[in-house]
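User: I'm putting together a small comparison set for a docking exercise, and I want a reference complex before I start. The sequence is below, and the ligand is arginine. Could you produce the 3D structure with the ligand included, as structure tokens?
Assistant: Of course. I'll restate your input first, then give the structure tokens for the complex.
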Amino acid sequence: MKKTIITGFICFFFISLLAACGAQKESSSGESDTAKDKTILKMATSADFPPFESYDTDGSFIGFDVELAQAIADELGYELQIEDMDFDGLIGALQANRVDMVLAGMSATEDRQKNVNFSTEYHRSGEMFISKPDDEIKDIEDLSGKVVGVQLGTIQEEGAEALAAEYGFEVKKVDDASILIQELNSNRIDVAYMDKTVATGYIDSQGFVGFDDPTTSSPGMAIAFPKYSEIVEEVNAALAKFEEDGTMEKLKEEWLSEIE
Ligand code: ARG
């Protein structure tokens, strides 16, 4: 008798468990039509680089790269998630497969291509040296004896290292590109060396002056992916569509036109 009661209880327990599982499954499949179940597309950036990526006053990400990434996610049916990190850590994050793509005004250099894949290029920018007008730094010869600031991990870091001995300047490296501007304003560096599109924005907003780097022609900016990523092709197809249907032109007009 006792045995039957215990067996009865055990059966009841398992039946309830199964019913609960069934109910659970139903509710999750019921949600599958909503945006919640969209595959997440994880983007990393270094949000210190207006007009490509920065924060607005509410702490949301804004900029050309941010809107381009959102347009790509919408086009391909992904939910976009953005993570901010130091520029110098972006390639590593891709190599460790911690993120799906990087949009960070990143130049598609041959060196980086050894470690990551790039989309087709979406923007070309030269390089510029910017400084305060009173310092009268007008061309590359004037860099002699000066301190030139660059962001760690950028092509400008490499470029500055290569030019420093020849032109007699010192290189100061910082993690965050916006710190370069603070350093310039507080005279801890004499010159900042950066992408022209970004430099021109600071010339306009902060009253700096600048000149083009006569020594290099850098590759264009592109989206970076982990090596062998399967989404490169679909992202390239989205970029091609945006070139054709005017989306790209609209984004460039909105974010890059005033400063080119
Ligand atoms: N275009 C340069 C490079 O690829 C600098 C990019 C810096 N980007 C940034 N979000 N801080 O090295």
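Residues 38 and 78 are 6 Å apart (CA to CA). DSSP finds nine helices and twelve strands in the chain.
User: Thanks, that's exactly what I needed.
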